[in-house]
Amino acid sequence: MNKQNQNGKMQCEIGMVGLGVMGRNLLLNMADHGFTVAGFDKDKNKVDSLRKESKEKHVYGAFTVEEFLQLLKKPRAIMLLVPAGHPVDLVIDELLPHLQPGDLIIDAGNSHFTDTNTRAQMLQGQQIQFLGVGISGGEEGARLGPSIMPGGPKAAYEKVRPILEAVAAKVNGDACVTYLGPGSVGHYVKMVHNGIEYGIMQLIAETYDLMKRGLGLNNTQLHDVYRLWNEAELNSYLLEITSNIFAKQDEKTGKQVIDEILAVAKQTGTGMWTSQSAMELQVPVPTIDLAVSMRDLSVFVKEREQASKLYKNPMMLANVDHNIFIKQLQGALFSSMIMVYAQGMMLLAVASDKYAYELNLEAVARIWRGGCIIRARILEDITAAFRANHHLSNLLLDPNLAEKILMQQNNLRQIVSQASFLGVPVPGLMVTLSYLDAYRSVWQPANLIQAQRDYFGSHTYERMDTEGTFHTEWEQDVST
Question: At 51, which CATH number?
Fold first, then answer.
């Protein structure tokens, strides 16, 4: 793979624009697997750092676009790992004058899927191939093996498939990457992945609040609880790191780091995009919506301080058996996590039909089993559910997963009830329970909503006994 052109310069198999943490680590990952690679960044310190860290590997750095492109064999494969939005367009605009028909650009950042559609159409007109690729795993994943979600022209994917399969995380020998489909599907799947991530993180945070303020557990006890949970059916990356967080000591103060962190969690967009897309497609994802809202609420610190004085919190330490409560909380979290995956997967199914993505949800679940932030043991069951029924519209309709939820639903109800009396906010757990109850309910009070709409706006309604739409003159012959 150590190829050179006639001038003796390296002919790298892929180039990386953007040598931040993710870009640099992913490039080094590629080099670890024997590929000759080149990196470019306008920050010369990052290029120098790459050169030092690469040591004897076939990694080459460039300070200019021209020098960078000369390092790449033709047709070129160029990956971008730069901030989403305008920076991506700036890089493409800078590269375009130097590219030739057949060259490939891979946007591996967290771009909005609609932007990916626009860029793909623009580049197609100039005979430049384009892939939108979602990558999850953070700094460690990029270096040791992420989950990779590619979408775009199949022929373009095949050009870089060996590289992506080599660097992706492996589960039972399977690479956590697969061609997902045409267009912007890669970035859409990554967006929903992040939405699920938002939901699960919110649920975990609520269990933390219940044990800290409700039971009065200290950080050492919290570390032990999450560690034990992670050794059972809740086994997941997010539970693993949560356990580790409560064991980390702050070098500056000697206290636990968790107690020194400001309780404000801003959101970068992908969770909000998931909620927005779900609303446009009319797919309910209430736990994800709630998780976005709670991050927004966390920012209103002064208002919450004022409200806490106006509305005295009835919170008190729960007068319950701690071991029983923690066991119930474990079951509540487990069942709720399944339902967050269900919401995300239902959105993917509807989006696939709407946008002609041709998604295989079994493949999505399979590549999420390793490398990514939402990897969890339950994804084995989710993969099996879609393998058994490729047309499964909602994971709640899978008999195996339904049984797991039914086994824990009383625990979820107990926890929500206890939290309500304590005054500890658990909106994620509450809305997830309500989602289950609404989804399993044959009858809903939407008939009243339709009657109200027809009353004040003549919006009409449908009847149970006759097809068509109808309107009632509600104020005529109304007895008071």
Answer: 3.40.50.720
Statement to judge: residues 94 and 162 lie in one domain: yes
Catalytic annotation, pick one of 46, 190, 240, 362:
190
252 is catalytic: no
Residue 461 belongs to a domain with what CATH number?
A: 1.20.5.320
pLDDT of residue 72: 97
pLDDT digits (tens, 9 = 90+) for 46-104: 998 888 877 667 899 998 999 999 999 999 999 999 999 999 999 999 999 999 999 99
pTM of the model as a whole:
0.95
Q: Using the 8-state DSSP alphabet, how is residue 151 labeled?
A: E
The answer on pLDDT for 427 being more than 80 is: yes
As a dihedral over the C-alpha atoms of residue 34, residue 38, residue 43, residue 49, rounded to 10 degrees, the angle is: 30
- Residue with structure tokens 């022209």? 153
Within this chain, do residues 315 and 451 fall inside the same structural domain, yes or no? no
Domain membership flag for residue 8: no
| Same domain (yes/no): 94, 178 | yes
- 95-130 residues labelled b (16+ CB within 10 A) or e (exposed): beeebeeebbbbbbbbbbbebbbebbeebeeeebbb
* HSE-CB of 461 using CA atoms within 13 angstroms: 19
Does the residue 2 lie in any domain?
Answer: no
Tokens 């106006």, residue located: 310
How crowded is residue 228: how many other Cβ atoms within 10 Å of its Cβ? 14
Beta bridge pairs of residue 237: none
Q: What is the pLDDT of residue 56?
A: 67
Q: Which of 46, 159, 197, 233 is catalytic?
A: 197
Q: Catalytic site residue 140?
A: no
